[in-house]
Structure formats: C-alpha cells, structure tokens
Amino acid sequence: MARETAQAAVALGGGHGLAATLSALRRLHDELTIDDLTAVVTVADNGGSSGRLRGEFGVLPPGDLRMALAALCGDDEWGRTWADVVQHRFAGQGDLNGHVVGNLLIVGLWELMGGDHVRGLDWVGRLLGAHGRVLPMATTPMDITARVRGVDPASPDAVTVVRGQVEVATTAGQIESVALVPEDPQACAEAVEAVLAAEWVVLGPGSWFSSVIPHLMVPGLRRALAETPGRLVVVLNLEEQAGETTGFGPEEHLAALFEHAPDLNVHAVLVDAGSLAGEREVLEKAVSERGARLVVEDIAVPGEPRHDPDRLAAAFRRIVDEA
Q1: Cα 88–Cα 20–Cα 265 angle in degrees, nearest 5
Q2: For residue 43, how many C-alpha atoms fall within 13 Å in the half-sphere facing its CB?
Q3: What is the spatial distance between Cα 60 and Cα 135, in angstroms, rounded to a whole number?
C-alpha cells in the first residue's frame, strides 16, 4: 500500500554512483513521495582538480560534492544550464587546465565564509536551485588507506598498505579492508542529524571501497547509521570495478560491506537483474541471513554498465510503497 505522507531520505556515497541515486530520488522528490532529500558525500578524493585544490588550499575535496549538487539540479532550463556550468572542465594549456567550474565556486565560497563547509554548500545549492541538500560526510580532511594482498606477483600472500583514494581505486591485488587517516574524523553534524531524522537511508552504488564503505569508517556517522529508525536500502554495483573490486559479484560486494559493519541493520538490498548471472539463490540466502529483503529489478541503462535514474526511481518508489 502506498504511503500517504511524504518522507525524508538520505543518500550516502560519492562520484557517479551517488549522482545516479540522487537523480532517481530527485524524481521522487518532485512527485512529493520524498519531501526532504539530503546527500552525504565521501570527501577523501586526492586526484584531479579536487586533489589540486585540496593540496593548495587545505580544503575538503569539492569534486564529489559538486557532482551531487549537479545531480540535484532540476530538469528546467535553469537547472540544466547550471548543472552544465558547474560540471564544465577547463581545457587550454594554462593553470586552469583540468579544473572544474563548480570546484572553484565551492572553494571560493568556503573562503568567503571562513571555512564553513555546510554554509558554503547551502549557498551553492540555492544558486543552482538544487532539489535537496548536499553535505560532506566529515569536516576533517582525510585519506583512505587499504590493506591489499597480492600487489607484488612475486609475493602473492604479502599485504601492502595503499594510501589515497585514487591509489585505492586503481590498486592491483585484492583489497581486504579499508580505513581512514585520521581514524576518527569529525562527522558533519548536519549529516548525522539528517540520517537520524530520515525515514529512508540509501547506501550505494559507487566505488565500493573508496566511496561507499568509507561512510562506515566515520565514527559519528557510523553510530547514526546504527541508531537511525529509518529503513536502510543498499544498492549494489552492476559489475566489478577493475583494480578496486576485481572479481566481485553482488554477493562479494555485500560481504565486504558487512565485514566492515557487521551490525548494519539493512531493510532491503537492491540489485540489477542482469548482474546476478544465476547467483540469485546464493544472494537471497546472504540477504535473508541479515534479516533484509532482496529486491531484483532492471535498473541498468540497457547495454551499458551504469544505473538508469528513471529505472532506479521506479525501483525506489516500489520499495517505499511496499514498506
């Protein structure tokens, strides 16, 4: 039975995966199924424009925050135009080469507002007419580290520690676990409040070890995810990611999540039908053992390894209506 009242939702992740989730949830926001939408974004990027700005100004990396804001822009002319503007990457041969307009805008507002990350992001959201709020998962600059087995082919059992989001995402070998440096970054207070107040919390998809699982490594945010009365939906990736999750299917993605947060209380696990490859019974067993419900839907862009926002929106709508 469909619910009669709108609800608050929080989506956690980073990069293109979070952008797809937000694009889908924005559709539910526009139709008033979701009346309050918040993105909580991983902020550990150390590459590209974000890495350069982080190194020069000592700020949080703005790139994934910018992508989330663009995903929340409306489908009208204002929204489409500003989404294109903030995503525009400079070419040329000078110092601006590779920088993104939205990254510079965000860092500029942070400087003008005395380093207030939340206030600066709220102002960017107002400028764009964003259909929701974007927050960092933590306000402390941080790095991701990973324990990786088999980096050196000559010593396949040796474990190497890799540091940096880019390095973790592209590592050779098999990632065993990830951690943050520092180990106890300060969670964004507004993000914690949003998780605790939400009826729905969505985790994933995205780079599993460098964008999704890091949220579980921030102590304050981890506690909020454990204590929230909201229903947690995990969206699994469509396929392995070379380097970071080589050889991973849906079950391995889920197992890695619970290895880092064994007490996570999950309401539903959403997986694309085309990514199961005959493993549905195995995944159903793993999901049911956690007291969760497996939801299998066609949520990929046909013929492409990326989530379709319209199909994701339809899947989220069914999950909400059937709760």
Answers
A1: 140
A2: 31
A3: 11
pLDDT 10s per residue in the chain (323 long)?
Answer: 344 567 999 999 999 999 999 999 999 999 888 999 999 999 999 999 999 999 999 999 999 999 999 999 999 999 999 999 999 999 988 888 889 999 999 999 999 999 999 999 999 999 999 999 999 999 988 999 999 998 877 788 899 999 999 999 988 888 999 999 999 999 999 999 999 999 999 999 999 999 999 999 999 999 999 999 999 999 999 999 988 898 899 999 999 999 999 989 999 999 999 998 777 899 999 999 999 999 999 999 999 999 999 999 999 999 999 98
3-state secondary structure the chain: CCCCCCEEEEEEECHHHHHHHHHHHHHHHHCCCEEEEEEEECCCCCCHHHHHHHHHHCCCCCHHHHHHHHHCCCCCHHHHHHHHHHHCECCCCCCCCCCEHHHHHHHHHHHHCCCCHHHHHHHHHHHHCCCCEEEECECCCCEEEEEEECCCCCCCCCEEEEECHHHHHCCCCEEEEEEEECCCCCECHHHHHHHHHCCEEEECCCCHHHHHHHHHHCHHHHHHHHHCCCEEEEECCCCCCCCCCCCCCHHHHHHHHHHHCCCCCCCEEEEEHHHCCCCHHHHHHHHHCCCCEEEEECCECCCCCCECHHHHHHHHHHHHHCC
CA distance linking residue 155 with residue 232, whole number of Å: 40
CB 66 within 8 A of CB 100: yes
Cα Rg of the chain, angstroms: 19
Cβ atoms 239, 47 nearer than 8 A: no
Q: Looking up tokens 């998962």, which residue turns up? A: 137
* Residue 103, both tokens: 């990254």
Closest CA to 131 of 22, 19, 41, 205: 22
Token look-up 């590209």 returns: 48
Q: Which of 246, 240, 217 is nearest to 151 (CA)?
A: 246
